[in-house]
Specification:
This protein is of the alpha+beta class. It contains five helices and six strands, in the order ααββαββββαα.
Length: 164
């Protein structure tokens, strides 16, 4: 049997995006994977459960992206927080506090400096302290939600207690 070959011709497509679509894409880029669950639940017409298998389910920490798809093209976040492979950051409004591994915190005003080229930590030390405190509070909150697994690793995490 002889193999057949196929030839595909690719055509460039030019698309003009409207301003609201660009705004929506920008908002989605500023979102985090934590928005996935509330978005899917809302699109499916469901509700976030309060209990599962005799365990209390914590409230969903993210926000749905459905408003981005429906009308106003924006999702307002109180904050965006992350901690991944030792890299940590928090964004509150236009302020972003970020640190690579164990290095010192860097502070950026994303409204004026989207490329993070001017570290403002030395000019705004109180803002750094305030945001570091918020980052640490969320670390403890997420650690409690995950039963220690997400931060400490599975071998040191406490067993989950069943609730009545």
């Amino acid at each position: 049997m002889q193999a057949r070959s196929c030839t595909f011709t690719l055509f460039p497509i030019l698309i003009k995006f409207t301003s609201p679509l660009i705004t929506a894409l920008n908002q989605m880029l500023q979102s985090s994977p934590i928005t996935t669950s509330p978005t899917i639940v809302e699109l499916a017409g469901g509700q976030w459960p309060s209990h599962f298998d005799d365990l209390t389910v914590p409230p969903v920490p993210g926000k749905s992206l459905v408003p981005v798809f429906e009308k106003d093209f924006s999702v307002k976040h109180d904050y965006i927080w992350w901690f991944h492979e030792g890299n940590r950051a928090i964004r509150i409004a236009d302020w972003k506090l970020v640190s690579h591994q164990e290095k010192q915190w860097e502070l950026y005003d994303m409204g004026k400096d989207r490329s993070e080229s001017k570290n403002l930590a030395s000019q705004f030390p109180e803002k750094v302290k305030e945001m570091e405190k918020a980052w640490t509070a969320h670390l403890e909150e997420f650690r409690a939600l995950a039963g220690g697994e997400a931060v400490n690793g599975p071998k040191n995490s406490p067993k989950r207690a069943k609730t009545n």
